[in-house]
Specification:
The chain is α+β, with helices and mostly antiparallel strands. Helices cover 63% and strands 16% of the residues. It is built from seven helices and twelve strands.
């Protein structure tokens, strides 16, 4: 293979395979990140499950943790399957590269052998001298000297090209072996995770069976919770109404002052008539402070700090089937975050404490105002703030309590005025 063909081959190799490996490496990195994150979730859930196992044999709290572990393990297995599929594709591509390099190397060696044989036949110094001195002119002599130089240079380049291709071939073989070992490790990991999944499914089924025998007690507990939720909902609605009325009164006072100022500065009857029309239409001026807070809170949608460092959403927002009672729907005005016993509760955004109250069935409740938005933290065992206090994001406001199911739960809600919002749309994705 001459120099031009070799260089062309190298460029083709880079153009075809390098982008693939670059893309594959990025995808592999993403898959490994997903696997690490899910393994971390499994570790957190296992810690929570260990706490619940130490207390009762069958609880809904324990059931939700096992369901969380099963769901996360499924994700891990799927991620590993994608990694294996990616490796299979890489192994196939690498094998194709090796085959191409081996064919090319064989051809280059054949060409070099022919060149070496030809050089040996005409390589003795007498033949060279005879060939040179048989030149008919000085110019022909110079041309024949250049021919010998170019011929020797071409042999050196061919040998160098063979060495490069041989090195590339060796690297690709090592790369292929590494991928095969990696695939083996992933297959073993997948088998182990499948075994863990089967154990968890058996435990889940046994828990469901045990809890089904307690349907009457669970139904009574559910009714008590509904009453507690209703009390909390009524409390929040009253506080929000009070705050809205207060804000409207302040805004109205400022608006009246602004209107009086504008009327005094109006130079024509037309300007004054326009102001009077705005008053009739009920135009209310939002205070600059409230407008700024609302804008800042809204800008942090899907980026809000989690109210606990460790935990997961065990029951989402809105209506959904009860985990044990068949045909029974439960309503959640926020989200239940299952966490560890004594977990610290943090403020998710700068604000002012609107209320601290003890609501039967919901434990201690802290409500924080952020302009026209409110965050609610219920089922606290201890509270570290008081009404009217200004708080910062990440500031501790108390500790989670333990409910009747032996699961440490935080009920977390977000309101915009009197409208209930889904907190999972506002919290940072874990």
């Amino acid at each position: 293979m001459n120099k031009g063909l070799f260089i062309a081959f190298i460029f083709i190799y880079i153009a075809i395979f390098a982008p693939f490996f670059s893309f594959a490496q990025k995808s592999k990195s993403q898959l490994e990140k997903e696997k690490r994150e899910n393994l971390k979730r499994i570790e957190e859930a296992s810690k929570t499950l260990k706490e619940t196992k130490n207390k009762k044999t069958a609880t809904i709290g324990k059931l939700t943790v096992i369901k969380r572990k099963i769901e996360t393990t499924h994700k891990i297995i799927n991620t590993v399957s994608e990694e294996i599929s990616l490796l299979d594709s890489e192994i196939s591509k690498t094998s194709s590269v090796i085959d191409a390099l081996e064919v090319d190397l064989s051809k280059m060696k054949e060409e070099y052998a022919k060149m070496a044989y030809s050089a040996q036949k005409t390589g003795n110094s007498i033949d060279k001298m005879a060939f040179l001195f048989s030149s008919k002119s000085f110019n022909q002599l110079i041309m024949r000297l250049k021919y010998f130089e170019q011929y020797n240079e071409m042999r050196r380049r061919q040998l160098k090209a063979i060495t490069k291709v041989n090195d590339m071939l060796q690297n690709e073989r090592e790369n292929l072996n590494g991928k095969r070992f990696e695939k083996g490790d992933l297959l073993n990991f997948k088998v182990a995770e499948n075994d863990n999944l089967n154990v968890m499914k058996d435990e889940h089924n046994q828990l469901v069976s045990d809890l089904s025998k307690k349907e009457k007690a669970i139904a009574r507990d559910l009714e008590e919770k509904k009453q507690a939720v209703h009390r909390l909902d009524r409390l929040i609605a009253e506080i929000v109404k009070r705050e809205i009325e207060k804000a409207m009164a302040e805004a109205k006072a400022k608006a009246n002052a602004e209107i009086a100022k504008r009327r005094a500065n109006a130079k024509t009857d037309k300007e004054r008539a326009k102001i009077d029309e705005e008053v009739k239409m009920g135009v209310v001026y939002e205070t600059p402070e409230t407008k700024l807070i609302n804008s800042s809170f809204q800008a942090n949608k899907s980026q809000l700090l989690w109210p606990v460092k460790h935990g997961f959403v065990s029951q989402g927002f809105g209506r959904r089937p009860h985990p044990v009672l068949k045909g029974v729907m439960v309503e959640n005005l926020g989200v239940d975050i299952q966490t560890n016993e004594g977990e610290e509760i943090r403020c998710v955004f700068d604000g002012k404490i609107s209320a601290v109250a003890n609501v039967p069935g919901m434990g201690m409740v802290v409500m924080i105002q952020h302009g026209n938005y409110y965050t609610v933290y219920a089922k606290l065992g201890k509270v570290a703030v008081s009404t009217g206090q200004r708080v910062k994001a990440r500031q501790s406001i108390g500790q989670v309590s333990e409910d009747q199911e032996d699961a440490s739960l935080l009920q977390f809600q977000i309101w915009r005025g009197s409208e209930k919002l889904d907190p999972e749309n506002w919290l940072l994705k874990k």
